[in-house]
Amino acid sequence: MASSSVTLCSWMIHHNHHLSPSKTKPLRSRSLKPIFLNPKRTVSIVSSSIITTKEENLKSSSSFDFMSYIINKAESVNKALDLAVPLREPLKIHEAMRYSLLAGGKRVRPVLCIAACELVGGEESTAMPAACAVEMIHTMSLIHDDLPCMDNDDLRRGKPTNHKVYGEDVAVLAGDALLSFAFEHLASATSENAVVSPVRIVRAVGELAKAIGTDGLVAGQVVDISSEGLGLNDVGLEHLEFIHLHKTAALLEASAVLGGIVGGGSDDEIERLRKFARCIGLLFQVVDDILDVTKSSVELGKTAGKDLVADKLTYPKIMGLEKSREFAEKLNSEACDQLLGFDSDKVAPLLALANYIANRQN
């Protein structure tokens, strides 16, 4: 039987979409591979003797109180972030850092990191430095994303953006400070926990660095910027997937992988977490693109329709709204399939997180 694995582009062709693949040479990454739907999988026994089937996973996620879980975890993350970045001299830069870092938000990335750590047998306290580090870097990316030289946005999480409050110069420096401190905090705070070996800490630092450099977030961002104004005849689905596997999915992937590393996961467990997070990372962006054209600024807590105004490539623009929704459903299904075989209780938060990302309204 021929393999049923398909890329996003061939998935669209299979579904008789009117668009053809990109006329440009597909972009390739040294670290992130395209999303493959319905891959052949071998479900293996992992750290627990309790092995789940797809039906059991669905039952587990449907009965799990995810909102209580994410609220409790987010509160823990917020407390840890508050302690990690206290208000001190120089006051202005620390005020700017805290303004964006403690502005709320869903805390999806740190919660993902903690849930992944707990899945492989680790504790929340073990994962917290890594969880805070990924949120610091995510906040940096938002501060820089909102700058006039980038997306030029005035609203973030329902509040004026950092540069609107502190000026462009301080906003740039606040982002820089959060980026550098993320690595300091990951290394120093994790090393205080005797459970995590130095080898795993170094591995985690390397994983996070790759996720935000020219193999990750920066690559996606620069290709996104250079793609503004390009027509549908100039680029295609592989081009768009490259952008979002790097710009959005890479940091979500790193969040799950860091949790698996510091939690003591095996290489097999970590790679399955990587594939899961890559799927939900792309899912996050597909849903984000859908919300940008279907929700108001008040509902989103940020400026709605800005991608349309900037003439950016989005999934609804290339695939259409309904096909984008179908693809989101497919990504959610494939993400959850990566978790087959894990302990049914420990896997519930990640399954529910995937569903939360798929069904979020802001």
TrEMBL record:
<protein>
    <recommendedName>
        <fullName>Geranylgeranyl pyrophosphate synthase</fullName>
    </recommendedName>
</protein>
<dbReference type="GO" id="GO:0046872">
    <property type="term" value="F:metal ion binding"/>
</dbReference>
<comment type="pathway">
    <text>Isoprenoid biosynthesis; farnesyl diphosphate biosynthesis; farnesyl diphosphate from geranyl diphosphate and isopentenyl diphosphate: step 1/1.</text>
</comment>
<keyword id="KW-0460">Magnesium</keyword>
<dbReference type="Pfam" id="PF00348">
    <property type="entry name" value="polyprenyl_synt"/>
</dbReference>
<dbReference type="GO" id="GO:0004311">
    <property type="term" value="F:geranylgeranyl diphosphate synthase activity"/>
</dbReference>
<keyword id="KW-0808">Transferase</keyword>
<keyword id="KW-0479">Metal-binding</keyword>
<dbReference type="InterPro" id="IPR000092">
    <property type="entry name" value="Polyprenyl_synt"/>
</dbReference>
<dbReference type="GO" id="GO:0016117">
    <property type="term" value="P:carotenoid biosynthetic process"/>
</dbReference>
<dbReference type="InterPro" id="IPR033749">
    <property type="entry name" value="Polyprenyl_synt_CS"/>
</dbReference>
<comment type="similarity">
    <text>Belongs to the FPP/GGPP synthase family.</text>
</comment>
<dbReference type="GO" id="GO:0005737">
    <property type="term" value="C:cytoplasm"/>
</dbReference>
<keyword id="KW-0414">Isoprene biosynthesis</keyword>
<dbReference type="InterPro" id="IPR008949">
    <property type="entry name" value="Isoprenoid_synthase_dom_sf"/>
</dbReference>
<comment type="pathway">
    <text>Isoprenoid biosynthesis; geranylgeranyl diphosphate biosynthesis; geranylgeranyl diphosphate from farnesyl diphosphate and isopentenyl diphosphate: step 1/1.</text>
</comment>
<keyword id="KW-0125">Carotenoid biosynthesis</keyword>
<dbReference type="InterPro" id="IPR053378">
    <property type="entry name" value="Prenyl_diphosphate_synthase"/>
</dbReference>
